[in-house]
Amino acid sequence: MSTPPETVEPRVRPGWRGLRFARRPLGAWARMRAGIRASELWLVVIAAGVGAMAGLLTVTVSGAAHGLQVALYGLRGDERLSAMAGLPGYRVLLLPLGGLILGAVTWLWTRRRPGSPVDPVEANALHGGRMSIRDSLFVGFQSVISNGFGASVGLEAAFAQLGGGAASLAGSFLNLRRNDLRALVGAGAGAGIAAAFGAPLTGAFYAFEIIIGSYTAANIAPVVAATLAGVLVARLIGGRPMALESQARDVLSLSHYLLFAALGMICAFLGVAIMRLVAFLEARAAKLPGPKWLRPALGGIVLAAIAWIAPRTLSAGHGAMRMDLAAELTIGVLIFLIVTKAAASIVALGFGFRGGLFFASLYLGSLVGKLYVVALTAAGVHTSIDPLAAAFVGMGAMGVAIIGGPFTMTFLVLETTGDFGLTAATLTASIIASLLVRETFGYSFSTWRLHLRGETIRSAHDVSWLRDLTAGKMMRADAATIAADTKVAEFRRRFPLGSTRRVVGLDAGQRYAGVIPVSAVHADADQDDVVGNLMINKDQWLRPEMTIKEIMGVFDHTESDELAVLDEAGDVLGVLSEAYATRRYAEELEKVRRDLVGGE
Questions:
Q1: Which of 111, 109, 153, 157 is nearest to 134 (CA)?
Q2: Opening angle at CA 137, ends 131 and 139, nearest 5
Q3: Is the predicted pLDDT of residue 428 greater than 70, yes or no?
Q4: Using CA atoms, how far apart are residues 431 and 442, in angstroms rounded to an integer?
Q5: Which residues neighbour 21 within 8 Å (Cβ) at sequence distance 6 or greater?
């Protein structure tokens, strides 16, 4: 009787079962992320969640800044810092102290993380919506210190930065497509602005015009969902929006619209002047002797001197604006307030305080609008325009001149006043201001700051794909080369007609010497001649870092259909044809067009 074979236990690798069970949730997570990428409804749900987080962050930052002002300046209840009647002498020292703290903290941070934080506009224009949440949180902290100690900067940049940073974190975690991530960053930034003002339409158009850079059918639902969620969450947790609750009722005629168009022109030139003065002072402050971290403290001394004579320049100016909208101010007072507020904002930003010009531009615009009507009346021009109505129109026009976004500022006036006639007047002045700024200056404040850092973007339109189309990435690396002193007969043997169109000639040091057209060598050249005598484009070539715009400019200038790509030493890296560069550009442009119209 045979012995039954032994039962052999299967060999199981250690940890195999644990790995199998671990893969199940990972697979489910991967399927969920794929479903989110394929569904617009899911994107709307995620955007609403991001908007709720942006609303929470906005209320937190606003409360922290106001709480710091209450602790430092002894404010009571809902009292605003810029609405203080006077500033006690010893509290003037708080501004340089805040600058010293800000400078020291920023110096410690930049030692670990050098470079400037990426803001939502730069992220969407150059990085496909990628932002650092750590940098965004630090920007929020810097803004709280700057605004909390009374520097004449607003918190709106922090609201947009934190909202955009939260959106970028969520979108990267869910592995969203590039275009969806850009839309989500715009939705998060817009939700922060919407929560700050309690104005969902304003926040939505802020996202479209300033952060995303375009309106598309695919972006409307997520952006609106985010801004509505941001406003609702801010209200539910007791946030106090920076709403300007004023009623400006006025019957406007055609002559009034012409007058408001002139106001838009005035605001455009003042806005450009303010932006240029910020850059000018920033450049001068950078040349001051001493460590960089002391500059905000020096700026704080200047701000303290301004605040001593004009307390309304403190902080962003919410309280001062509410008081001045309802007050009857003389020409002298209005000029004084405009000059001191503009000076305080320029000094604060020029010396390194963190913040923005969003609310400062609204406050300055309201003062300019009032001054415009009061001055016309004093000059004997009876416009019959309510100064309060002019204040709102000036607010929108100045906001457009500095921040951009004609519809953003127009909807802010609409949601503030509920007056459609006044809204139309604001749109008129805003469009005039926008056109003049684009023609004479070309930047908003955010893109102007990027321009000073060496960037060339003028809006949040996605131009990073253009920068990916470089000569180094598009060239053929297998360029045919030959010594420039080669005889024509040898060249014809090595490169018969039809083998290639161009050959790169090299000098004795194996460096680029020119391009040799194969057809020219095979035409009527003497067999004993050297091919170097037939070379073209001896001084024309491409660098690997050149973008498609620069590449096409060189092709147009040389009227050549193929150029060599060289490194800095003159070594040949490859060749690039005009036809291939044009085709790659057309392919990427078509891809962008499909994204804009929501196509596949």
A1: 109
A2: 90
A3: yes
A4: 14
A5: none
Q: Identify which of 157, 233, 150 has the alpha carbon closest to the alpha carbon of residue 189.
A: 157
Structural tokens at position 456: 């060339």
Distance from C-alpha of 103 to C-alpha of 86, rounded to nearest angstrom: 27
The answer to whether residues 516 and 496 belong to one domain is yes
Tell me the per-residue pLDDT of 102-136, one tens digit each, with 9 for 90 and over. 999 999 999 988 888 999 998 888 888 999 999 99
Cβ contacts of 427 within 8 Å, gap of 6 or more? 396, 406, 407, 410
Q: Which amino acid is at 599?
A: G
Say how far residue 572 (Cα) sits from the centre of its chain: 37
**Does residue 530 share a domain with residue 445?**
no
**Between 40-73 and 217-236, two packed helices, what is the crossing angle to 10 degrees?**
40
Query: At 480, which amino acid appears?
Result: A
Q: Are 202 and 408 in contact (CB under 8 A)?
A: yes
pLDDT at res. 1: 41
Phi, psi of 529 (to 5 degrees): -75, 160
Cα–Cα distances (Å) from 309 to 153, 301, 331, in that order, read 18, 13, 18
Whether residues 309 and 418 share a domain: the answer is: yes
Specify if 15 maps to a domain: no
Read off the tokens for 267.
């605001």
Global pTM value: 0.81
Q: What is the pLDDT of residue 148?
A: 94
The DSSP code for 185 is H
Per-residue pLDDT tens over the stretch 1-28: 444 444 444 444 444 454 454 455 555 6
Summarised one tens digit per residue, pLDDT across range 155-209 is 999 999 999 999 999 999 888 888 889 999 999 999 999 999 999 999 999 999 9
573, 567 in Cβ contact below 8 A?
Answer: yes
Q: Which DSSP helix (H) or strand (E) runs through 573?
A: strand 572-577
Nearest CA among 421, 420, 298 for reference residue 351? 298
Same domain, 413 and 370: yes
**Enclosing domain of residue 426:** 254-458
Q: How far apart are CA 452 and CA 79, in angstroms?
A: 37
Supply 375's token pair. Answer: 């001055």
Name the 3-class secondary structure at 517. Answer: strand
The answer to whether 428 touches 257, Cβ cutoff 8 Å, is yes
Same domain for 328 and 343, yes or no, is yes
How far is the C-alpha of 241 from the C-alpha of 361, rounded, in Å? 18
Q: Are residues 177 and 116 in the same domain?
A: yes
Per-residue tokens: 206 = 């802020």
CA 30 to chain centre: 32
- In a domain, residue 600? The reply is no
- What is the distance between the terminal CA atoms of the chain, rounded to a whole angstrom? 72
Query: d(Cα 256, Cα 216) in Å, to the nearest integer?
Result: 34
73-105 per-position pLDDT tens digit: 988 877 888 888 777 777 888 999 999 999 999
Same domain, 231 and 94: yes
The whole-angstrom separation of Cα 542 and Cα 576 is 9
Query: Same structural domain for residues 454 and 476?
Result: no
For residue 36, the domain's CATH number is 1.10.3080.10
Q: Which of 426, 458, 490 is the last residue of a domain?
A: 458
| The amino acid at 290 | G
Q: What mean pLDDT is reported for the chain?
A: 86
